[in-house]
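Record format v2
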Amino acid sequence: MALVVEKTSTGREYKVKDMSQADFGRLEIELAEVEMPGLMSCRTEFGPSQPFKGARITGSLHMTIQTAVLIETLTALGAEVRWCSCNIFSTQDHAAAVIARDSAAVFAWKGETLQEYWWCTERSLDWGPDGGPDLIVDDGGDVTLLIHEGVKAEEEYEKTGKFPDPTSTDNPEFQIVLTIIKDGLKENPKKYTQMKNRIVGVSEETTTGVKRLYQMEQTGTLLFPAINVNDSVTKSKFDNLYGCRHSLPDGLMRATDVMIAGKVAVVCGYGDVGKGCASALKQAGARVIVTEIDPICALQALMEGLQVLTLEDAISEADIFVTTTGNKDIIMVSDMKKMKNNAIVCNIGHFDNEIDMNGLETYPGVKRITIKPQTDRWVFPETKTGIIVLAEGRLMNLGCATGHPSFVMSCSFTNQVIAQLELWNEKTSGKYEKKVYVLPKHLDEKVALLHLGKLGANLTRLSKDQADYISVPVDGPYKPAHYRY
Amino acid sequence: MALVVEKTSTGREYKVKDMSQADFGRLEIELAEVEMPGLMSCRTEFGPSQPFKGARITGSLHMTIQTAVLIETLTALGAEVRWCSCNIFSTQDHAAAVIARDSAAVFAWKGETLQEYWWCTERSLDWGPDGGPDLIVDDGGDVTLLIHEGVKAEEEYEKTGKFPDPTSTDNPEFQIVLTIIKDGLKENPKKYTQMKNRIVGVSEETTTGVKRLYQMEQTGTLLFPAINVNDSVTKSKFDNLYGCRHSLPDGLMRATDVMIAGKVAVVCGYGDVGKGCASALKQAGARVIVTEIDPICALQALMEGLQVLTLEDAISEADIFVTTTGNKDIIMVSDMKKMKNNAIVCNIGHFDNEIDMNGLETYPGVKRITIKPQTDRWVFPETKTGIIVLAEGRLMNLGCATGHPSFVMSCSFTNQVIAQLELWNEKTSGKYEKKVYVLPKHLDEKVALLHLGKLGANLTRLSKDQADYISVPVDGPYKPAHYRY
Amino acid sequence: MALVVEKTSTGREYKVKDMSQADFGRLEIELAEVEMPGLMSCRTEFGPSQPFKGARITGSLHMTIQTAVLIETLTALGAEVRWCSCNIFSTQDHAAAVIARDSAAVFAWKGETLQEYWWCTERSLDWGPDGGPDLIVDDGGDVTLLIHEGVKAEEEYEKTGKFPDPTSTDNPEFQIVLTIIKDGLKENPKKYTQMKNRIVGVSEETTTGVKRLYQMEQTGTLLFPAINVNDSVTKSKFDNLYGCRHSLPDGLMRATDVMIAGKVAVVCGYGDVGKGCASALKQAGARVIVTEIDPICALQALMEGLQVLTLEDAISEADIFVTTTGNKDIIMVSDMKKMKNNAIVCNIGHFDNEIDMNGLETYPGVKRITIKPQTDRWVFPETKTGIIVLAEGRLMNLGCATGHPSFVMSCSFTNQVIAQLELWNEKTSGKYEKKVYVLPKHLDEKVALLHLGKLGANLTRLSKDQADYISVPVDGPYKPAHYRY
Amino acid sequence: MALVVEKTSTGREYKVKDMSQADFGRLEIELAEVEMPGLMSCRTEFGPSQPFKGARITGSLHMTIQTAVLIETLTALGAEVRWCSCNIFSTQDHAAAVIARDSAAVFAWKGETLQEYWWCTERSLDWGPDGGPDLIVDDGGDVTLLIHEGVKAEEEYEKTGKFPDPTSTDNPEFQIVLTIIKDGLKENPKKYTQMKNRIVGVSEETTTGVKRLYQMEQTGTLLFPAINVNDSVTKSKFDNLYGCRHSLPDGLMRATDVMIAGKVAVVCGYGDVGKGCASALKQAGARVIVTEIDPICALQALMEGLQVLTLEDAISEADIFVTTTGNKDIIMVSDMKKMKNNAIVCNIGHFDNEIDMNGLETYPGVKRITIKPQTDRWVFPETKTGIIVLAEGRLMNLGCATGHPSFVMSCSFTNQVIAQLELWNEKTSGKYEKKVYVLPKHLDEKVALLHLGKLGANLTRLSKDQADYISVPVDGPYKPAHYRY
């Protein structure tokens, strides 16, 4: 795609695949709004006072319909927004189109190259000559990374006059990042430094991004406050447990149409994602075997009537294999060779290295037969039997289905809105230093509260006397920080 | 589509939408075969002896991938086969293509007109000048109907010289049937009579078809023996209960992506289909309310922790409504008006008249917004709120998902193969009169048996002593006819 | 116990263990009444018209609190009642006491000898010099047996002058029966013949009794009409499936206090009882393995995610073994020797011969350690490890817990009341011949209906139009006879 | 009971109800050992090295069979032990008898008066003239309280010469405590001070005790290190969630025999205890309504398909009410009056003040009918209808059943053993200050590990490479402190 910024009739910049899909996007946004009560309640509660008046927000997060509802919540609260996706495949083009047309500057399309991806990221930060965003919504930390690397390079340049050297790294993606920074440096040697000075803070969506932030906090290199949205209860439990419980069978059924009842399924890992997956498979009538390294999680699996075995124990017996670990090398090609014909292998954990895709692709004589996009049968030459790999080993709920449903994302994204509000409201109070914070529990509870009405729930209210008896405020927070839910 | 029969290079007739989809069809057949152990076992067990050698089979049954595996099982056992679909929408064009290319004479495509539908049906019976099929596989009874009406008309014609009069009926579909018969009569006044004389019997797949057969049996007008496959345990329980338990959530998720957990779902009817649906929704985290007319089924629902209310009780509280009754007028437009905004309304029971589609379509000022094919939002003028109707009120698991999974269809279709074998093997023995029979229980048990190995089951074997103790043969049948499973 | 009939102050006969428990019995009856809405509704509906006015009912059925509510329903409808238990262990002495004191002639106590048991049975038929009962409520058929054997002996005596010879049989129980008949014959050579002439019919509670009745029907020896209550849906499904789902874990917990979660449980047999047991164990967090001889039931188990193996496959892995088959020799002593230390072995199927108690008791060197009544540890000499056998291999839900809960028994017993009413109302109409009948479906439905209100259910009502559409009456019956529920 | 210490033939002191129950106690211990693999593994792993050689342990914890296995694990590791119960009702007399006879000095019986209770507690600390215990196992903190109050009084006495004044408090129990201390002070004015000086630390079992410890830590009055066993994952989740999931239905069934299926159950509170209860009730076929004050827990309930209402909303509809909150005044007498006849009301949370027992007992004209011990029907004068209260509002799983099963207690108690070992091994290292500590996560994981083998689990082992990838040691701990499981 020609990397040229386009403009709407009102002059707002954008770059999306197909503006004609905007109407379809609007229809789907309207459906999603009904399923995202947390975000809609934020509009009702905060909209009138326009708390983000004057705030510029840059977001880098999968440009989907649900994200569109998030963006329009931010703008409804007064913010000006620029957005890119945090993944080259995850944009829904109709969502990008309608937001570009109606609400914010969007630079995203499904199937970007890495070059295009970083061009879009750069655009999301391009608030014109006089600087960058006030606030960042990040997912995976790429925007945060770019700014931190940019500032580092500018400091080095100021000290030594040296430009960053893209050839100094083998990582092709990081070469692109360094090139962008180098080019920026030539234009404006204070570009990222000015940006950093303006930034009030970032709220980060995922484990990966949060991990990077804590590392920067520990090394003292974090340039602005960060809120770890990922570890809110209403984010982590809902996204991982309930989200995957929904989207794992959805992905399996769309990709393979296979009957789950009666099958033997192996779930590798019994953290929140694994718990959601195992529950969904058991409910659908599969017999579920769990593999675990952590004896506590293993004992939890046993308490639910699940068998705990090693992958090796179950390899030749199972019909469905799901990795949920966040670790690598969980299912190797040597394992896949031992599986039953047409065993299904998929990953809903983290990166595609949970499954040894490289080993599979380079296996001598292996034959790949694409049944349909995201559903491949790989046939081994020795046995002529094959296995079915979903989404090329990447997240199968995104690749084969539509990811988490709107209601789950409403929980996540309401945390985002509240985190952004918290950062913005406290921008001058000094409450937040250059550290990583989780949302205070009463805000986590507030996120939950905003989702109860939609589901017809009536909450009980503590009397003052009862609240005193258990030493909590009448309005919460109700639990100590270490409470496990 | 021009109604012209085409021929393969080997001279076999066909009419399908797109022959180029045959390869894709073959891929999907290969996947399905692994999930259809009953049919594959029939090939192994009976293939070598070619029991259908010399038998002509005409089938009228949804021309899907699963049906393709059925057809190729029949041909693997020696039969010659001609096929049409029993529904204008249900053909999978890649399945039709590959069967037409490789295995049988197929006349079917997705989206036939009624005229085209009956042309295809006629072709499936067109075995050339010297008569019709030996055996019929029917689903809904349209082929059986055509032959019976044909014979009736020929008898009338022989007696009175009168042709059937298409204008004698208001039913547009029956007008087509009469026209076909009339045209046939002009060519050959014994066409259907000759056909009837050759036919050994029919095996019928569904409730509707079975109902017609019993009516003909009672009125003494049934022209050949019929086996009621529908009421085999391995058909009815598996198709209705386990099939819908799988395909209801599949359809909901594909059509709407809505989170099922936390929602209130109303399941109208708690027969086998309703039991499967309620179970699936409960497992997915919905709160399920059942409506029932039958106090026994209602009590069963209560024993599973489900609430039993009238539709009226639940109408304004529920998020999802599913009809499973096989009756009509279950959810009327006056009900729909009272529902919450974006309540989902769908039918997995029988005909689209379970939902008052006519009332909805003709409601003054109602607005239909098609979100995507098979997913419509209908907005009422008074409230500006809307409901979401799936598959235009027709079977949502077919319209929004891919119907029952292969494993379930393997149970159904193994019953078909065994019923066809039984009819053919006993064609001269006089075992079957012009009546409707259910498969003997030991054959029903055999169908189940053929599916156990795939799921890794080991069956226990009665000793002679034990068998005598409970007065059953060592090899079954194990249960009395009235046993309820 | 001295076998002497006692009399209440009102002159009613009885023989129970301890009259002082009557007050406690009344308290428990009052609790049970709230849980037995079907019986209480019968009192409300039929009580005023006293339909049983003048009817003498003899019952032989476990003399428990629930049976007490049945008896007082019969008397509330006008009947005069005499009662014994149908099992030497099953009487609840406080239930016997209160009924003896307040409502009917009872002859029953916990722990009868066989001699005592048949004495009680005889008393229940002893309506004085001028004959026997009008109606019989039977469970297992012992009263029916006694009368049939009595009549047979009297006919033989009339023909040949020969008395029955108790030494003609090896069966010690049948020796007692013959002795009773012989003694009766000496007193009154037409005793049972007169009785038979008066009897309107019997309603039979269980499989065993029903089996005997059908055999008598087939051999033409049945002396009066019989209603098979056992095969009402509201009896068989509720008693077997829901009853055992409740009482299996209850018995396990009371007997052993063992944690079910995390354990491996083998359920032998997957009929209704097995389905209830497997469901309960799975819900409680066990991993359940099913053994089956019937491929259909096996496939049903697989569809619920249960593993189907042979006992041998699972013998050394499982912690809990439950027999539910109704067959014999399911778990042999050779199996028990291979079990893990402290594996629990119990039977909830039928007779204690499902478990090879004889083989266990006679195993050389085996040591029995009674932990508490009904809970024995049996230690094998070779391994010094042991297994825990519940209720000496008899029904563990009766032996270790309190049997089925009142609500389940209300379903069974409402069938009994309605069957008795039907027999009595039709006593002169000729509707019932000397055959075995199941209750007509509309009465089965009525039983269910009477239980809905207690559980807060609202039934939907068919319109006339809808009823016609599916060809059923508006008020039911709603299903064909072969419907499987 | 006469408060006189008795002695075994070996000279060990004790005071129990009935020494003749010792053999029965031994039988039950042998059963329990098989279900307590964590404790038995500790014996195998640590027994040979006798790590507690020379250690005196005083325990105050329900003197049950499971505790007996704990005590004999401590003695198997070399400790000398004195024990009392921490609750006047919770002792199992056969457990006390066998331990007194075989293993440790026990002072406990079922149904102690408060006076007797504190006499027993004092005896458990009476290690003779030269001082007290080295280690304390506490449950609820009464032993810890006695020592702290003792030391406080001795310090006051040393300063002012004043004895503590039992009349200074209205609390009758605290009057007893002060009297004991006063009497001790007269004998030895350094009794508790000497004791304190010897004590290495305490491990505390429950929330209540832990709460007190944290308060003492905060006020700087804690006299020795304390390990909070309660908040180990393997304690809190297993005890609360899995323990109550087992013992709630057990208690309901033993107390009332009521059928759970079909009933409406209200669970007040959806913490771990509430989650376990709601799960058990739902599985058993009840329709479950949850009341909650915390929106996060409420949302979790909704995700499981449970309805969230206030008590008021559900009061007249429900059949079973369970309090699980740890708060007070959850169900008031004004609520109970509105309930259905024979609604069951019980508490499995904490103290009996969750249910307004005082309000009930003092309600004018209310009538209490004891059905059987721990099961009372309370009849209101206005309506003549009644409710059924279990265990007089105290913990129903202890009062009506046998508390948590052995396996759950094995998790708790293995934490205790490991905590005691940790305190003892580090007694001179200075690792533990006068603060409250939770067990380090790798020990929590170890507790889980020791329970896997019994349940047939095979744990997966990380490779070094994988461990590095996710930045954890190969042998754990595997999760960060805040991980929620």
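Residues 6-234+403-443 of chain B form a domain with the Rossmann fold fold (CATH 3.40.50.1480).
The mean pLDDT of chain B is 96.
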